From TrEMBL:
MF term (GO), any: kinase activity
GO biological process, one term: carbohydrate metabolic process
Keywords annotated in UniProt: Kinase, Transferase
Pfam families linked to this entry: FGGY_C, FGGY_N
Gene3D superfamilies noted in UniProt: 3.30.420.40
Location of the Carbohydrate kinase FGGY C-terminal domain: 275-479
Domain Carbohydrate kinase FGGY N-terminal, chain residue ranges per copy: 6-260
UniProt name for this protein: Carbohydrate kinase
Stated family: Belongs to the FGGY kinase family.
InterPro entries: ATPase_NBD, Carb_kinase_FGGY, FGGY_C, FGGY_Carb_Kinase, FGGY_N
Amino acid sequence: MKSKVYVLAYDIGTTGTKTCLFEIGDRLTLVHSATQEYGLTLLEGGGVEQDPQDWWNSMRDTTAQVLKEAKLDPAEIRGISFCSQMQGLVLVDKDLKPVRPAMSYMDQRAREQMKKGIEHGIKIEGLNAYKLLRSLQITGAVAGSVKDPLWKYKWVEAKEAERFARVHKWLDVKDYLTTRCTGRATMTLDSAFATFLYDSRPGKSRWHKGLCKMFGVRPEHLPDLIQSTDLIGGLTETSAKELGLKEGTAVFGGGGDATLIGIGAGAVEEGDTHIYAGTSGWVSTVTKKRTVDINARIASIVGARAGYYNYFGEQETSGKCLQWVKDHLALDEIDVYLEKKNVTEGEDAVHESLFAFLFESIKDTPAGSDGVIFTPWLHGNRCPFEDPAARGMFFNIGLDTGKRKLIRSVIEGISFHKRWILELSQAKVPASSTIRFVGGVARSPIICQILADITGRTIETIDHPQNAGATGAAAIAALGLGKIHSFEEIKNLIPSKERWNPNPVNKSVYDRNFSVFKKLYEANKAHYAILNTYK
């Protein structure tokens, strides 16, 4: 029996922070958690921003909540770690304070900067051939999306000269928070990889001055590089006082969500595959190969474990589609899911959430939704095609199409897209036959079964799958504190809880719908451009 210690894991998401108190012993045990939401500011031209102070305030408030609930002295917290949204841009001055609001990973204002930076001259897949090949050689990927932080940096340089002149360091979301905690500006390797200025070749692991010059980035703006498990330092007196913790509490590097959600799912060894469905979603397989599929936009991204990568394909909107269904299709039109009352309140309430009732309401709807297909591109898409103008639609609606079929088709559409990524990734990196499924959506048994049926893979879930990012951050703290000594040991801390096997009866109808699903983007690409391209 291992001696037990407590750590705090901060999961800094797109719309809120979840702070989780974990006990590290023979297993990672969630003791208490607290969540606080914050907003996104949507701006003309595709801008999406957040106030970094909102992240800090949410950390402060939720820390107080979990310590109060657990009746724990702050001195008992041995360390803190972070999992956060990635590919944001937080520019700070010499006092390490933001010079402007943070630009979210969803921000897509930098079209002009991307066009000037990489969409000129002789092209491969629409990108400048020399810059594409040079980037692939050095980083293993390329800044091929208008949402990539490199173009956000260039946008600020071009549009906000006064603010840009004050920039001291370029940080990602969790790196800003660790900087504020410790007074030391650093960036973990996974976030560095996402800048596409990091030399990820074996034995290199450094900022690449040649790429900085090629893209016009000032090397002095780039912070010190660290591993996810590195101890950055202790909480400063000021940050400890603000967070209600003890000065000197160990702060570890942590990682981005694309890195640590896989760790928290228990997918830590070569060949382990996990699927995530939160606000966004992805399919990822652990590999030792540094490889990329330009056509499919799948790449080996740097992970938390030295010498290993995550072969990663992203879905821009995943669980966000279900939230849209709840807010606009279900609530707006059918008065709380067909029953015209709040089904979560009152003595006779049997559903713990509106989502639970939504999923229960479609359990008898036949697989395939009677041929109705939903495209889950409510905010554009990244993989296997990059198109910020792509949008969602219900295809093949008939007179007998009811709301339950529409709702089920949304779940199936999200799963079809993940199957698409999974099948394309197989070309270079084989996926595991059993897949760990995490994220808030993984709490629904019916969604787990639909995903198993559509992918043809066995699906496993873990305890509290919605907290996989925080679980991964806690595992990183366990390594940093020396409570475990290898990434392989993380599997012992995070066992599987339930599993779903594919139902062969549903295969033919899902295969039929999937064959149509894959053709809908190309059939409508030109229409999306006409309707949704920002002027």
